[in-house]
Structure formats: C-alpha cells, structure tokens
Amino acid sequence: MSVEAEPTVNPWLEGNFAPVDDELDTGPLPVTGEIPAALTGEYLRNGFNPAVTPRPSYHWFDGDGMIHGVRLGDGAARYRNRWVQTKGLQAERREGRSLYGGMAEFTVPDADLLAEVGMVKNLANTNIIRHADRLLALWEAGHPTEMVADDLATIGETDLGGALVGPMTAHPKTDPDTGALCFFGASGFAPYLHYYELDAAGALVRREPVDLPRPVMMHDFVVTERHAVFFDLPAVFDIEGMLAGGPIVRWAPEHGARIGVMPRDGGSADVRWFELDPFYAFHFLNGWDDGDAVVVDGCRADDLVVGFGEDRVPAAGEFPHLHRWRLDLGTGAVTEEALDDRSGDFPRINDDHAGRRNRYGYVAHAGALTRTGGRFDGVVKHDLDAGTSTVHRYGDHHVCGEAVFAPDPDGHAEDDGWLLNFVYDAEADTSEFVILDARDLTADPVARVHLPRRVPFGPHGNWLPD
Ligand SMILES: [Fe+2]
Description:
Blueprint: E1 31-33, E2 41-45, E3 66-73, E4 76-83, H1 87-95, H2 111-116, E5 127-131, E6 134-138, E7 145-147, E8 154-157, E9 173-174, E10 181-186, E11 193-198, E12 204-210, E13 222-223, E14 227-232, E15 235-237, H3 239-243, E16 249-251, E17 257-263, E18 272-276, E19 280-290, E20 293-301, E21 321-328, E22 334-348, E23 360-370, E24 373-383, E25 388-393, E26 398-400, E27 404-407, E28 417-425, E29 430-437, E30 447-450, E31 461-465
Antiparallel strand pairs: 1-30, 2-3, 2-31, 3-4, 5-6, 6-7, 7-8, 9-10, 10-11, 11-12, 13-14, 14-17, 15-16, 17-18, 19-20, 20-21, 21-22, 22-23, 23-24, 24-25, 26-28, 27-28, 28-29, 29-30
C-alpha cells in the first residue's frame, strides 16, 4: 500500500488510525519501571486494520480485525499481532482490492463472492474475549470468529455450537457469580433482537427473542444480577437506503429512545420499557439492582456523530459524558443524573463486580474533539460512592485507548489491580503499553513497555490471566 505520494483526506486513515502491514512476534521488550510480578497472562486487544487499500468512503469501523497482544510474565513483556483471517479478508487479499463497501456505502456482492464470503464481510474487529476456553473475536453484525490462543491463528466463524440464530454483540458480559456469558444479538431483519446466556462451560441455557419495532444499532447493553437492560435508541438500520448505496445507519430522533428492563429468567412480554428523549450511548460502565430499581451508568451523548457519511467535528454535547439512569420498576419513573461534565468513553470496571454495585469506574478522557470524535489523552477514575474522581494523563502528544482493569490476584479491594492501555506518542510516532496502578492514578506509571512500532488505535480488549 503506497499512500505517501498523495496525502489522504480520510481522517480514519491518518496518523495512528492508519493500519500497519506487518505481523510481529517479539522477545522481551525494553521496559521503563517494573512489570508487576502478579500479572501473568496476556492482554489482547482487537483493532481496525484494513488489509487492502480501502475505499474513499472508508470508516474506522470498516477495517479488518487485527489482534494485538502483550504477554506478561516473569517480569517481561512480549508483543505480537495477527490479522483475524476472515473469509472476506482472504478474498480481498487474493483479488488485491476492496470487494465490500462499509458503514457509509453498502455494495451488493456478486454471486461468487456471496457464496464464498456472504452478503457482508464479517470483520471480526471489535472485541476479543475468552469464554469456556474459546478465544472469540467479536463483531456485532455477524458470528464470532474463533482463534487459537497459542499462536493467534484463525479457526473461523462459529455459531457457538448452534446457540446463535443471528449476530452476537461485541459486548457480552460475564456473570461474576456463575461464569455465565450473557449477551444479545441485534439483527437488521426480524426478529431484531435476541437475548442469550451460555453457562460457564459454553452450553446454551437461554435464548429469548425480544420484540423491537424496528432494527437499531444496539452496540452494548447491561446485565445485572437479575435483569438484562436493552437500549432501543434511534440509530436505525436503514435497509432501503443501504441497498441504494447509502449509509447503513440513520439517526432518526423522531422515534425517541427507550430503555427496556427484562428479568433474566423472563421473556419479551416481561420487558418494562421506559421512554426517554432521544440520545445515543455506545458503551455502558455497569448496572446493578437496587431494590425495585435498576441503576445503569453509561456514556451518553445527545446525538450520534461518528462520521457515517458525515465529516465534521462533534459539538461538546454530541460527544459522550458519563451519565446515570435510575429505572424504577415500581413507579415506572426514570431519574437521570450527569456524573461528569467531561467528555469520555470506553468505560471499564473491575469485571469481578459486573452487574453488582461497583464503586469505581475507569473512563477514557477525551481531551479534544476532532473529526474522528475524541482524542483520548488519559483515564478518569471515578469513585461513584464519594462522587469524586482522579485523572491520569499519559503525557503531552500522547493518545490512549480503553483502559482495561487487570485485577491483582492477591488483592481484596475493588481497585486492587492495574489499568492496561496502548498509548501512542503522536510526536515520536511510537507506541507504548502502559500499566497504571488503579489504586492511585496520580502516580507515575508502574511500567511502560516500549513497543517495536506503533499500534494503531482500536476499540476493545481484555486481560486474560494464565
Ligand atoms: Fe464498543
């Protein structure tokens, strides 16, 4: 791919959004500081990394999945990365060009491609999880793609032993008490929503269709001890517009917004819907049951501005802020509260507290808003009980991603652990893997692993302890 002669005008291909074209396996890397001895395992993060020259309409979400891993153990850190070898990537590599459109421009594949790859290209690019000893690269519009943990080789798409009847969200939740994997699948075709639970061994134990009036882009959700909480927000799949070559998602505020609370042992008829003015939220921090109420914290925005066919800098209110909804099942009332006036997204917690009342939340701080949304320069630790927060900024010219909480196996407090993040130095054009002590974000990093080249920005990852 040669782009040096003509500067790109697509912001999703500039700076550290640009893909890398190599797959590495390093030995021990130089470290400033000391890697905590208790951290033995691998941090894996998915990302958007087009394998062939993308179309002019390319959006960040259209890139092929690439897994970046940092293995920690014996005080050392090693880096590796691999594309997820999807059928679509392999077909495009073979042809040497992009064969599919994307978020801003849908194309209908010819009959051969339809048979080989499908109507859409499963990008497997949004998250990577481990459940029941299976490593799964997730993409919300298709099946998971299974990978081999040892060498990050791609096995292929899986319907999880027949469990799936449609797509699977990239944001499943693990019940910390039972180990069950709780997730939904949102489809462009009826039934538009399913709720699923797999037990800790990976067997399907629940699959419930949930009625929705129209197909919507539902990116994340919340699971508490007793409830699943769905967000029916007005980012509508526009199938007709899409088939005419337009954007796949249309902002349709005339539909308002609804939050649905379903008992985990119930079905569609048991969902309690709460009506709200239109908003959008890509990501939720957590949610928990509080008597007759369900409390949900997430990153709320007034609007949906991520450049699906648009190209502008969002206004402050259009970028997400941490927000709380209290859904009272007794009275049917919703109480809302802004938890932060700073822009931020990519919220994470200590997942041992998922679905239970959490005290701490970690949110990527958007220091500036650009055509690509937020330029994340740090992480905010919220003490939700005290209503206070502390911030760690990674440094001038430094841009980070989602901070993933890795619990200290010897710890007891909720914040006993570390925050893991890829951090890009925009001046030096290099990346580091940075470990912060989650107990004290005001301190210098515990360790900074100097990576052999930059790691492009990407969405989500997880710490997988040995
Ligand atoms: Fe996400």
